[in-house]
Design goal:
Layout lengths: L7 E5 L2 H4 L22 H5 L22 H15 L3 E5 L2 H4 L10 H16 L3 E7 L5 H7 L6 H17 L5 E5 L9 H5 L9 H26 L4 E8 L2 E3 L4 H23 L4 H9 L10 H7 L4 E6 L3 E3 L23 E2 L5 E2 L1 H15 L3 E5 L17 H19 L5 E4 L22 E3 L11 E3 L1 H11 L6
Parallel strand pairs: 1-2, 1-12, 2-3, 3-4, 4-5, 5-7, 6-8, 7-11, 11-12
Antiparallel strand pairs: 9-10, 13-14
Helix pairs in contact: 3-5, 7-9, 9-12, 13-14
Amino acid sequence: MSFPKGFLWGGATAANQCEGAYQEGGRGLANGDVLPAGKDRFPVGLGKLKMLTCDANHYYPAHQGIDFYHHYKEDIKLFSEMGFKTFRLSISWSRIFPNGDDQTPNEEGLQFYEDVFKECQRYGIEPLVTITHFDVPMNLVEKYGSWRHRKMIDFYLNYCETIFKRYKDLVKYWLTFNEINMVLHLPFVAAGLTFEEGDHIEQIKYTATHHELVASALATKLAHEIMPECQVGCMLAAGNTYANTPNPKDVWQSMEKDRENYFFIDVQSRGAYPNYALKELERKGINIPFEEGDQDILKQHTVDFIAFSYYSSRLTSADPEVNKMTQGNVFATLRNPYLEASEWGWQIDALGFRITMNSLYDRYQKPLFVVENGLGAVDVVTDQGTVEDDYRIEYLREHIKAMKDAIELDGVQVLGYTPWGCIDLVSASTGEMKKRYGFIYVDLDNDGNGTMKRLKKKSFDWYKEVIASNGEVL
């Protein structure tokens, strides 16, 4: 058997994309709540269009998500029916500390997640919990400028200590930050950062990054003290960057693009800022705000495993004439003529998945956990009330085969696989519902209209068989 016994098959979600109930149960406002659908979403996500509150002129899809808050028992039961061994979800920071800097936590929020984890436990499903998945209380954004302020480390650790102590007997696997490298690409979405005219944007991004890296190391330390048996992972948006040609300049450019993302995990997994990053930041005139003890903290409290998302590979050229960009999950990339693309322009590259897994495992020599992978597509409900999503089955089948090859042929150690959006949810990048990933269809449109009714897609039964056979029947 190529997949190890106990391999953690499951699915992944995030609170800000599925939970809804944004003003219920004592929850405070978070950055995801002020991200509108439509043309303003990307400028707000970049931190360039400042939107710190909600207005009557926009629709905010996170406000109701798919209402997991009220449907979690039904949804977890469906996950159980598929045979999930694990369920990746995130905790909404502002549901626990509505303002982020509160003296005491919100009991109603704490109880909600306790109920969710116990429901998972009931079905033998292991929760995989992201502590912050693109999630910052808006009070911390307004009062402190979010992660640009060192004080955020204290607020984050207070939050971590609270949830670690409360859920120590219910959760074994933790991720400190979702796609930590996304602070460079969508700084408001990833870290609640906004910018004013004249700001040194790169300095602010890397200041926030340093604070998150120190916070991640201290959270790892805290988790191991409170829950000695737990495992803590980092998480990056992964996908190797190919050179457009054998021209060494293109090869060098592809290496630099990969390093831009590896940098974060180099620190979290190896325990120190890599020399290439130190030199690059020095050339850019960016100061890393080291305080006494930071380097020891980073060195002594590295992560136990490397979690990552993979949707596609990327392609780059050193020639500015060639570098005419297309879209791909926020990362700009050239069109690869050897690959097909999804309806949103994301290039489909199953072998690239195996390449990425090998790159990460060779680099870090720590177990991997694939916590996001999937195909966003427009699904149509037939007159018979079914969703024939063979295109999704094909995408996942080829990627699971590539993962199997990485394990069986290359010796890569992998803990589990949780495809993204195992139930349809709001797209983080576009705010759409029609960009669906799930095995379970949710009756909701881009404007938030629909019955919320859950419907099993064709891929539901397919994935159920994959899990039952431990990846042998694809």
